[in-house]
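User: Predict the complex.
Assistant: Input components as received:
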Amino acid sequence: MMKYESQGVAKLYFIAAIGLFTGQILFGVVMGLQYVMGDFLFPEIPFNVARMVHTNLLIVWLLFGFMGSAYFLVPEESERELYAPWLAKLMFWIFLVAGALTILGYLLVPYAQLADLTMNDLLPTMGREFLEQPTITKIGIVIVALAFIFNIGMTILTGRKTVINLVLLTGLVGLAVFFLFSFYNPDNIVLDKYFWWFVVHLWVEGVWELIMASLLAFVLIKVTGVDREVIEKWLYIIIAMALISGLVGTGHHFFWIGTPDYWQWLGSIFSALEPIPFFMMTLFAFNVVNKRRRDHPNKAAVLWALGTAVMAFLGAGVWGFLHTLAPVNYYTHGTQVTAAHGHMAFYGAYVMVVLTMISYSMPLMRGQKAGNQKAQVLEMWSFWLMTVSMVFITLFLTGAGILQVYLQRFSEDPLPFMVVQEKVALFYWMREVAGLVFLIGLILYIYSFFAKGDEVVFAED
Amino acid sequence: MRETFTKGMARNIYYGGAVFFLLVLIGLTFDTVKGLPKTDNSENMTELVAAGKRVWERNDCIGCHTLLGEGAYFAPELGNVYTRFGESTEAIKGFIKGRPVDGIKGRRSMPQFNLTDEELDAVAEFLKYVDGVKTARDWPPNVQG
C-alpha cells in the first residue's frame, strides 16, 4: 500500500519512538509521585535523574518521530525512492544505541561520574536543562542529523519539489543548525542562558512549527483529498506567522535573566502574537476536513489531525499566552504554571503531530489502507484517554501554579518554597492520578496495533 | 481563503517575514551582548566562579532547582539563595554538606553529593555571583524566590 518501498524505513523509527515514549511516561509517573512522596526511590533515582530521563526521552523520541515522518513523507512528495535507504537504517541503529547508552548512563552512574567518563572537561556542555547529554552524544546527534538531512535533501533535490517537502526540509535544517548552539557554554551565566534559548525556543517555537505544519498539511491532503494549492497557501501563511511572531518572541525568555529592559516590551508584544499561527492551524484543519472530497477509511488519523490542531492551540497558544506578558510573567516565571504550559504544548503540538503521522502511515506500511474496525476504535479511545488526561494534568498544574504564585510571591507574607509545596500537594496528587490515566491510554494505544478485527469497508476514491 | 490572496503572496510573506525578523533578532542579539556588562555581574567573574559553574553543571543542579527562574520546579530558586541565606557562602556550603545520605523519610531531600572543599567553595562563589546579576525589576519578586 506504500507508494514507494523505501518509505518502509519509517516503521523502524516509529516503533522506537513509541517504545521511548512509553519510557518517558513511566518516568513521568515516577516524578509525579516524587512530588508528593519525596523519598520515593531515593537515593537510587533522585528526582533530577528521573526528570532528565523524562525530558531527554521526550526529545529523542520526538526526533525519531520527525525522522520517521520525513522518511515516509519525502519519497511520496518527491515521487521517488529515498536517496539512500541503507543510510536511513544505519543511522537508526546508531541513534538508538547512542540514545539508549545515554539514558542508561543517567540511570546507572552518578551524573558527575558520567561527565568524567565522557570527558566533559574537554568541551563542557553538560548540566544544562534539556541539554544534559554528554558532549559525545551531542556530537553523535549532529552526525545523525547531518546524514539524515543529506538523505532527505538529496531525495527532494533530485525529485519533485513541493511546498510541503521544502518547508519540512527548511524546518529540519533549522533544527540541526540551532542545535549547534548547545556546544556554546560560556562561563558568563547570562550569556549562557541567552544562547541556550537559541536551541530551546528556536526549536519549539520556531523551526519545529515548520516541521509540524508540513506534517499536518501532508496528512490533511491525504485524508481529505482537498486541492494541494489550497493547502499550500494555508501552510505558507501559518509558517509565516509562526516565524514573524516566534523569532523576536524569543524575547519572552529574556525578561528576568539580566538582559536589557527592552525585551519586556518586545518579548511581550511578539509572543502575544504567537497563538495566531496555532489558531490558524485549527481553522485550517477544520476547514479542510469540512471541505473534504473523500471520506478516508482511516478515521483515527483524521481524529489525531484535528486533535493536534486544537490541542496545539490550547497548549502552546492559550496556555503560552496566559503567562507570556512581562507583568504576569514577573509572578509566574519558573513556577508550576510554566510546567502546566510545557506539558500541554509539547503534547498538543509535537507528540500529537507525530502520532498523527504514525496513525496515517502505519497501516499503509503494514499493507492496509487503514487499521481494522476494532483497532481504530481502540486507537480513538486511547486518543481520548491521553488527551483528556493531559488536559487535567494541565489544569491541576495550573491550579498548583496559581496557588504557588499567590503564597510564595504575591501575598503580604510570602512563604518559603517548601512550605508552599506542601500546601499545594492535593493538586500534585490529582495530577498523578491524571498521569496514571494517561499511562492507561498509552497502553491501550500500543495494544491497538495488535487488535484483530473486521476490515474497514470503504468507498473507492 | 479568497482567490485574491494568492499562494504567491503567502509565500512572499513567509520568506520576507522570516528573513526580516531573523535579521531583527540578530541585530537585537548584538545589542544585548554589547550591553550585557552593565547587568551581568561580569566584574565579579573569577576563576573560582567559573569552576563553580562546572560544579553546578556536573551535578545537574538544574534538574531540581531553578536558577533565575529556569530549570526544574522541584526545589527552591537559587538565583537569590545567597541573599536568602543571609549573604553567607558558609551557610550555602553548610547546607550542601549536611544533606543526609539516605534522604529524609517521606520528604524531598537534596542528595549528598560528597563535594570536595574546593568544589564547595567554587559552587558557593558561583551562586553568589549569580545573585549579583542585575535582573529587571530585581526579579525574583521577594527573598523566597
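Chain B touches chain A through 77 residues (CB under 8 Å).
Let me know if you want any component modeled separately.
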